[in-house]
């Protein structure tokens, strides 16, 4: 039997996934969790072969869970479920040690197949998510524009950003104006959000 921990903060999704996996003769769900910290605690208590975790959870996200399990339970293979296939999330998931990356909209039978695959030591990345990652546009920002936008955030005062980065306030404003224009944003806050969502910061 492949022993599985399943973590998702949405009760209906978690219960539906447990129901799907429980129908498989070679898979047993040994623990469930509603947040990231609980997932780590229950994994340490039950020592599953595979941990299937939602990407976005309170307390500790799926990437953080997989990274922690990699340190404390290296024999546990991690699979991340997500509704967001952004390229930087895929890169972060794989660099955290995840062996599988599956879209929540995948067919029901796909999860069991992925669990078996990662248990055998193989990797699996949802083809649609992989295609999105490969075709994603590169960042339009220069490294300095990205640095200034990251430091400025949505509303940090320009003077404070300037002191932090050892730049003049005018230079900071110029970089922020350029970054906002390149991203086609209506404001600095919108530019910051767009850049974060695309993994350019």
The helix/strand class is alpha/beta
Topology pattern, helix = H, strand = E: EHEHEHEHEHEHHHHH
Number of strands: 6
Q: Total helix count?
A: 10
Helix content bin:
40-55%
Q: Main β-sheet: number of strands, strand sense, barrel status?
A: 6 strands, parallel
CATH overall fold name of the largest domain: Rossmann fold
CATH superfamily of the largest domain: Response regulator
**Overall residue-averaged pLDDT value:** 90
Total individual domains: 2
Order of strands across the main sheet: 2-1-3-4-5-6
The CATH class of the largest domain turns out to be Alpha Beta
End-to-end gap: 42 Å
Give a verbal description of the structure.
The chain is α/β, with parallel strands linked by helices. It has two domains: 133 residues, 3-Layer(aba) Sandwich (Rossmann fold); 55 residues, Arc Repressor Mutant, subunit A (Orthogonal Bundle). It has ten helices and six strands, in the order E-H-E-H-E-H-E-H-E-H-E-H-H-H-H-H. It has a six-stranded parallel β-sheet, sandwiched between helices. Helix 7 crosses helix 9. The mean pLDDT is 90.
What keyword list fits this structure?
Arc Repressor Mutant, subunit A; alpha/beta; Rossmann fold; single chain; 201 residues; elongated; 2 domains
Helix and strand layout, with pairings?
Blueprint: E1 2-7, H1 11-22, E2 27-33, H2 36-46, E3 50-54, H3 62-72, E4 77-82, H4 87-95, E5 100-103, H5 108-119, E6 124-125, H6 127-135, H7 143-152, H8 158-165, H9 169-182, H10 188-197
Parallel strand pairs: 1-2, 1-3, 3-4, 4-5, 5-6
């Amino acid at each position: 039997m492949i022993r599985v921990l399943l973590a998702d903060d949405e009760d209906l999704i978690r219960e539906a996934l447990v129901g799907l996996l429980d129908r498989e003769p070679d898979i047993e769900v040994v623990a469930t969790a509603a947040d990231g910290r609980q997932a780590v605690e229950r994994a340490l208590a039950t020592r599953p072969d595979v941990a299937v975790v939602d990407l976005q959870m309170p307390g500790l996200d799926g990437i953080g869970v997989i990274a922690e399990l990699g340190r404390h339970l290296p024999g546990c293979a991690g699979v991340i479920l997500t509704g967001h296939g952004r390229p930087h999330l895929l890169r972060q998931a794989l660099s955290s040690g995840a062996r599988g990356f599956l879209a929540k909209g995948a067919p029901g039978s796909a999860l069991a197949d992925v669990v078996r695959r990662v248990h055998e030591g193989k990797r699996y990345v949802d083809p649609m998510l992989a295609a999105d990652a490969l075709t994603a546009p590169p960042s339009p920002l220069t490294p300095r524009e990205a640095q200034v936008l990251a430091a400025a955030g949505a509303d940090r005062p320009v003077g404070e950003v300037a002191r932090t980065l050892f730049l003049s306030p005018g230079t900071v404003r110029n970089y922020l104006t350029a970054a906002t224009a390149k991203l086609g944003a209506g404001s600095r806050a919108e530019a910051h959000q767009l850049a974060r969502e695309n993994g350019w910061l």
